[in-house]
Structures are given as structure tokens and as C-alpha cells.
Amino acid sequence: MTATTTVFATDRAAPVTLSTSGTTTADVIAVARHDARVELAPEARERVSRVRAHIDALAASDTPVYGISTGFGALANTPIPPQKRTRLQKSLIRSHAAGAGPAVEREVVRALMFLRAKTLASGRTGIRPQTLQTLLDVLNAGITPVVHEFGSLGCSGDLAPLAHCALVLMGEGRATGPEGVERPVPELLAEAGIAPVTLTEKEGLALINGTDGMLGQLILALADLRELFTVADITAALSVEGLLGTDRVFVPELHEPLRPHPGQVDAAANMLAVLADSPIVASHRHGDDRVQDAYSLRCAPQVAGAARDTAAHATQVADRELAAAIDNPVVLDDGTISSNGNFHGAPVAYVLDFLAIPVADLASMAERRTDRMLDPARSHGLPPFLAEDPGTDSGLMIAQYTQAGLVSELKRLAVPASVDSIPSSAMQEDHVSMGWHAARKLRQGVGNLRRVLAVELLTATRAIALRSPLQPGPAGAAVLADVTARIGTPGPDRFLAPDIADLDDYLASGQLVRTVEAVVGPLH
To bridge 13 with a disulfide, which of 30, 67, 70, 251 should be the other Cys (CB 3.0-4.6 Å)? Predict the structure, then answer.
């Protein structure tokens, strides 16, 4: 599966400090997308050292402890003598780095490495301070392990993806340097002044037993979707202008007092702001014989609002997971080493699947507005397919085909991954979350939604331009100026794919929202 992401600036952000109290979604974004440097707080280093001393004492005892002096998974009851424990850790990482398929995106790998470091810094895993520091050094050097598309079942955490990262700490595996070019791992480490680690008791499990991959992708997707939900309000409002729709259904008295879903209230307010002072809208406010606009126009805040509220629930889950310290076994406050099931990815997997539904539905509604603008029977005076010379020119006919194909794919991606479970590890791990797969398909869905909205933007701005001499409102005029500067004015048929790609980049950059907010003020 090929995943996509929003384009962000690459300037380094302010340093992020890892403490025993955890981290924030803003920190994850800063490290994953903006190469923020990560530092370890002194109190976190002290706690990690103190807990490690306890692990060393257990390793020297005769009592078998899972992850310290036993095998793993279905081999948990197999004792491992001290002279084989270094080999045990190497074998664990090497055998678990069994991914396949294309490499996942750099920002995903950086997010999962940072989130694993966050848990290690909690002092709950028993890792040595020098091993944690090596992980941070690799992250700060811009070295990115090659992590593959397939390998994680989301339980016991994202084992294979994290194992590929841990392998690089050992001086093995595959990685790219800061410039994005793959080079031998020993060469990359030496160039950065990083000595490979020799893992000791408990460290192998500590490095790979977490939900960091799926959580990182959830956090990245939520950041993109917050922007895209506002984009969807803007493109919907522009479609209302293009289709000579009314703005009266977006007034606040129809929303918060009557149906107080927070997302709906915000979406309606955004659309009303974008349509403010629109001569196109005012031109048919009186004497129009249409009683109501179609659902894809009139109900846009209800759909976009429900998507926002779904994201709000997912954000709450992400925040809880950020506060977690996931490992197995885990070190409790009294020093007890306890096996547990916190690595199961169900809480994250469910919301990753949940978000895929409104992503698909929001795109589906946008496509219906596009189709309406291209159909002369429903567009209220626009030429067929917004073509300059209908018949000779096809206009935006096939752009809508592309949009429809993307929507169809989004519907397929909305089928949940978390309802599936394929037992593994000789039935020891007999129920798994498939949260990694839910994350991968959501990332693809986010990119597809943005492309659908880019086609709606292309269509709506062309429809508005064709309404001349009627003019859009100030917000619509500003957007139309942006779009015209990028792809030119409507005219005879031309190569459309570059226009769609250009507007996709425009949305991904955040410029559409900035342009509108410069006119109407902050949007929700």
C-alpha cells in the first residue's frame, strides 16, 4: 500500500525534552516532521538508571523472569543461561526484523522511534541509559532505519517495525542518512560518532514491545485531518457559490441551539464566514424559486462536523496512549516485574478504523458537489462540464472520474482492519489488533481525501469564474486569485493532471486556509 502525507516545512523545530511525565502530540509532530532534536531530562536519566540497577539484580538471581532470563512468546518458559543472554537479545531483534514490502515514510519511522524513546524514558522498561541515549543519538543524527510496509500485527505492539529500528542501534540492518540516501549502517553510525550497542537483559523487548507505530501514524493523521476538515468547509462554501446556493442554512441559530454537536457548529460557522458578503449569493436571495439546496450543499456542516467530532474522540485516545508506558514485562513502582497485556493495540486500532469512515464520507459528499457543478441539468446555468466549447472540449469531465475513483478507493479503505485477527506465535498470541494495518490505510485515506478536495477546489473556482460578471465574496475572490496565479484562467482543454497535482500541493501546504483566514479571520 502506498501511503501519502501532507507536505510540511523541513526547518528544525525547537528541541524536545523527554521526561518521566511523557510528551505531547506537538512534540511528536516536531520530531517526526521538523527534525526537532530530542534531549533526555536529568530526572528521566536518573530514574532509568535506578530501574536498570534493579533489572541487573534480577538478572544475577536464580529466579527466571520473562524477558530477562527466558525466551519470548511461545518460548517464554525456556530458561536462558547467562552466557547466552547477549545472543538472546541479538537473536530477538534479528529474527523480529522480518518486515516485507516497500519502505514506509521517514516521518512514520521518526515518530515511532521517538514514541519508543518516550516509553523508555518513563523508567518502566528497565533499559540501560546508554541504550536509550543511542536511540536518541540516531534520531538526532537524522539516520532513519528502513521499516517495511508489512510485518506488524499490532500485538505485541509493532514488533517488526520497531525491530528494524533496534537493529540499526546494533550497527546492523538498513538505514538512510540525513540526505535520504541509503548507506551501510556502520558507515552512518561512524559518521555521526555513534557506537553500536550490545544489548543486555530485557533491552530487546524494551525496544520493540509497544504501539508506537500505530500511535505515531494516528497522531500524524489527526494533524493532517484537522487542516483538511477546514479545507473541506472552504471548498464546500465555494461550491455553494458556484452552484448559486444559499448561505442561510449555515446561520448559527440553526445549529448550536437546535443540534449542539461542536463540530457541526464550527463547520457551519466556517462556511458562513467564507460566504460572507458574496455578491453571487446575494444575487439570488430574492426571487429564486428553489425552496432548498441539495443535501451535499445544505448538509455539509453536519457531515464535516461529525468528522470533527470523530477526530476529537480519536484525539482523546491518542492523548491517553501518549500518557502510557507500554512494555511487557513492565517495571512497577514497587520494583515488581509484571507481565501484562497493555501492548495490545485495540484502543488505537479502533479509532484508526473509525476515522476512515468520515474521511470516506466527507470525500463522497465533495464528489457529489463536483458532479453537480458539471451537470447542466443541475448547475443552474453553467456550461456542461465547465467546458469552454462543450463537445469540442470535455472540460472537467474526467477530473470527476478521478475524484470518483478516489472516493471508491476510500470506501474500500473504510472497511475496518481491527475486526480481523490471525493468531500467531504458536497460538500464544491468539488475538491481535491489526492496528498497524488500520494506520496504513488511514494514511492513504488522508491523501486521497486531500486529492478529492483539490478537484472540488478546481471545479468550484472554475464555476465561480464562469459566473462573471457576478463576483464571489472576499474570501472566494482571494482563493480564486491564488488558484488563477497557480494554474491560470479557464479556457480550452489542456493537460489537467498537473493542475490537480498543483492544487493538491496548495492544500497540503496549508496556503488555502491561510489565504481565507487573512480575509475572514481565524477559522475553526
Answer: 30
